[in-house]
Amino acid sequence: MNDQPSKTISILLTLLSYGAVVLLIVLPVVLILHEALRQGVHAALETLKDPEARSAIRLTVYVTALVTVINTAGGIAAAWTLTKYDFRGSRFLVSLIELPISVSPVIAGLIWLLLFGRQGWWGTWLAHHGVHIAFAVPGIVLATLFVTFPYVTRTLMPYMEQQGRATEEAAFLLGAGFWRTLIRVTLPDAGWALLSGILLTTARAMGEFGAVAVISGHIPGVTETMPLHIETLYNGYQSVAAFAMAALLVLFAMTTVLIRMFLERSFRKQHL
Amino acid sequence: MSITLKDFTQYAPRSSRKLLDDIALTVEDRSFVALVGPSGAGKTTLLRAIAGLSSHSEGTLLIDGIPIHDRPVQDRGIGFVFQNYALFRHMTVARNIAFGLDVLPRSRRPDPASIQHRVTELLDLIQLPHLAKAYPDQLSGGQRQRVALARALATGPRLLLLDEPFGALDPLVRRDIRRWLRDLHERMNLTTILVTHDHEEAMDVADTLVVMQEGRIVQAADSATLNATPATPFVMEFLGETLKFPGILKAGRFIPDNQDVAPFPFEGIDGRATVLIRPHKVALVALTGNASVERRPDSPNGLFRYRVLTNSGDFEVTSPTQLSSEELQNVHIQISRGKVFYEP
Known about the structure:
The complex is a heterodimer. Chain A contains 15 helices and no strands. Chain A has helices spanning about 5-35, 40-45, 50-85, 90-95, 100, 105-115, 125-130, 135-150, 150-165, 165-175, 180-190, 190-205, 210-215, 225-235, 240-270.
């Protein structure tokens, strides 16, 4: 008996997946570029020179860089602790780490607002001491941190689990301390998984809208990140500007994806 | 390097279950010791404890008379070879071997040229000089094993601990590496402790066998002593094929339950007992009993195998000489060369 799917079916399935990719991924990107360039490259580039647009780009780059660094460190620590140590409540912590993926980002934003907003629990006290979190950059960073926390941890954990403790114990017995073992043995070995997690965090941090929209207060030129600014522009019927900004954001995202692909390929080559 | 364990007990994490139960063991400097026993006996746990890898323990563990945790890892002089080798996959063989030197504090780290020299030396020692730039994934099991060994030896340890070092190797390679390891042990004046579940391997390579069962040491002695005076039926059964004959001790005689087996004189306290005997020590006396014997077709190691049929069960014995067909009739079985153990 021949259990292989027939040739027609496999061709059909291939066409279907290509169709889906074109329809759902390529087409929107092309449309964005088309809209952005409707009045020519020059007009599109001009819109990006607007001070508010520049402020949005700067803010997004700043927040993304900061969040990626913090969540990489935090994610490594969490993944390491949760896989290498078996302690009471570790399973509960693992499911808790995934919370930001399942909870709507808007709710995340609301939580921070509830804590740090002017009417929030700590808002008055903080404002009294001159610390501004809600409707300010620290709030945006906090919201983005929350939303992107799971990525490094979740991509590292399966890898570290499969690593086991033996190589770390070997490094320890050869005289390497905790940091050396982490930097020279554990992380390089998990290299690809770690990079993948970092790049996912970067991409997600750049695009975050919901949580940031709630906590930032949407102040153009001050607390507007690129996604928020795109919305403002679009609602203001400045569609060329909106799509130019959108195209830039897509470019950023695609760069991270390409870096990821490139690194994966070179990593594979090195190990096979 | 000498090791002393006294009243050493180790618990499973977060429970009161004992993985090692009241261990007392002395390993002399430059001796070669094998920890043997069935899986789950605590061999690896004990080896890890000696390496200082375990927590949740109480009792004394001295290395050269000093508690193990009183000395920083770099100064302990312990080389450890893991069961699955635990090589660093992202490093070349050369970097793997150099690791222990690379991570020394700067004041004591040899310069790169000396490290390189040492690595070359070790690669020659393990007979893999051409594999310096290979990655562990590209090596065979035997090669990985030797690289792991070279890595453990790089810092010049005086105590070498090996966890099932021959486990994943094919029989021919196993024997070679065993010989080579023994040789290395002599040449480098090492104290070596290895874990294995294979008693023949242990007897071949080690001076002292530590037989373990359920977290305890049952007997620690050289193989001649273990063979001559096994401490418990378990030790005897573990060290080779064994036949069991339950019976009763009465008035200076052991009387087997199996009526085809001859009683024999034995001075001891009256009560239930069991005779354990190696198959080749059973004597068959023709024409005096009721058992019959069948010749088995194959003869491993030049021994002839016979199947003995009695009214209360069959068993197999071996004999260095071939029995004639008359000798296979109406056989009487003598087991007086066996060991008598009282039943608890």
